[in-house]
Amino acid sequence: MAINTIMKNKTYNVVSGEGSGGDGNSSSPPSSPRRQTSGFSQCRRRLRSKVQLQYFRKDSLAAGIFVRRNIQFLLLLFFLYFSGLMMCVGRFSEFLRHSREPIAIYKSHVLLEKLWHDIETDNSTALELSSVWQFKRRMKVQKPCPVLATRRRLGSVEVSSGPAGYLIVEANGGLNQQRSAICNAVAVAGILNAVLVIPSFGYNSVWKDPSEFRDIYDEDHFIATLEGYVKVVKELPDELISKYDHNITNIPQLRVEAWAPAKHYLGEVYPVLQEHGVIRIAPFANRLAMNVPSHIQLLRCITNYRALRFAAPITTLAQKLVNRMIVRSSMTGGKYVSVHLRFEEDMVAFSCCLYDGGDAEKSEMHSIREKGWKGKFKRKDLDFVAGRNRIDGKCPLTPLEVGMMLRGMGFGSNTSIYLASGKIYKGEQHLAPLSKMFPLLYTKESLATSDELAPFQGYSSRLAALDYTVCLFSEVFVTTHGGNFPHFLMGHRRFLFNGHAKTIRPDKRILVGLLENMTISWKDFKDDMEAMLLESDRKGMMIPRVRKFNRKNSIYTFPLPECDCLQSHDSSRVINHTLNVLDPQLEPTRGRVPVSD
């Protein structure tokens, strides 16, 4: 009877799915019968299990809290220990890190002394200036600039047909930073269809030049050249400025982000210009992106290479300096080398580089840094910084290093060199080795009389304009430390010389490594320098690939291909025309010594 009952129960379980877990049709062996227990025993076991479970849960909770608190405490102890360890050994670890990183110490004067006999007695044929540049670029015949199309498009860039208002900008910085701001201002005026007021120049505490636009550039030529592209006026109309109590600072001033795209000016600046009729943007350094529509890019080209002409006092003296350099370069066919040397006192101090002046130089440079850039340089490991800067090629080249480099490249001692620079740090001492290697060494101070230079003294931008012009027409231009001056000059030379910058840009990392090698021979040094010259030649003719609205390089350094249509491919005719523009009374020619000064 009991067995039958169990079997019946099992059959029910299988059908209902509570048996083996298979489907209803699968057979399985019968399960063992359950042992019969009393209800009291079962209740006692359940009660015991609940009590044990409650105690277990309480113990687990307490243990968990205890463990978590211990872990937090241990982490806090570890953090305090690690912080103390870092405070104790930080300086030592910094020392170890510095000792592992390579640094370079200025020893070029020692190497020159070691190699001087070989340099002086080098009988190899000197490099002919007429054959320095081996790479030639075959220039395509360019179509004329789309003048009329450009003028039409400037009035249809999502703005009204008539002028939307007046644009005022302030150009700050040195000569070429101001030049960049002027070109960008014309471009922005084209974007906004605005009338441009002649840019004002902000007084810079570094350059300390109070010159205005008309003191450096020919205002009338600037306005006339841009006529039909962008309207330029010398000042605001009286009825407009009177609305602002004849005070320019009352005019709405906008702050524009650096490298702002054209759409930013159309979307954010243009509505304000329409509302007020005049706006002022300050500061204005690098406030326009390099990627702009082609017709706006052309405005930069026209401004830089056609509209910006130096004022008459500058062009007159600059022309004389160019002619005097040609006269003094008679042994090299009237061709000369120009060097932009950045070894002024403030540049040496700012670079945090050390040379051969010892503790006295360190103290002097520290004083200059504190005076010029209060609190900016407080690091105590400047010796290490100087060594790293030097090995990374960030230190200005000394006149001695420039001389060794040029002699190594093959330029003979009869090469005429024009030195474009401010006041050289300890000039007599540092220029002596360069003068020894190149006796025909000239500056604007040595070429011009004191009376001729007198009107320019105290005006750094006007003096820089003289250097710019003499360097522009040299056969070889050497840049030694970057900056706006060489970048603009390289671009201008590319524009004049059929796309070739004719510029030596030394790889200072490689050069420093060679100058640190006290076992190098003069022959090996020359081989490396000749390879460096060849690389400068190759890179000088490179034109970056510019896709539509995708320019990554500065148009002021690489003006092609956008400025191509302004270019004449007869370089001698271009140079002669430019020189005649400088001074119509003179007729200089390349490679020929003029009759008069």
TrEMBL record:
Segments of this protein annotated with the region Disordered: 16-40
GO MF entries: glycosyltransferase activity
UniProt keyword annotation of Transferase present: yes
UniProt keyword Transmembrane helix, yes or no: yes
Membrane spanning residue stretches: 73-92
A Pfam family recorded for this sequence: O-FucT
Keyword line: Carbohydrate metabolism, Fucose metabolism, Glycosyltransferase, Membrane, Transferase, Transmembrane, Transmembrane helix
Record-level GO BP terms: fucose metabolic process
Residue runs in coiled coils: none
Superkingdom: Eukaryota
Cited PANTHER family: O-FUCOSYLTRANSFERASE 10-RELATED, O-FUCOSYLTRANSFERASE FAMILY PROTEIN
Family designation: Belongs to the glycosyltransferase GT106 family.
Name of the featured protein: O-fucosyltransferase family protein
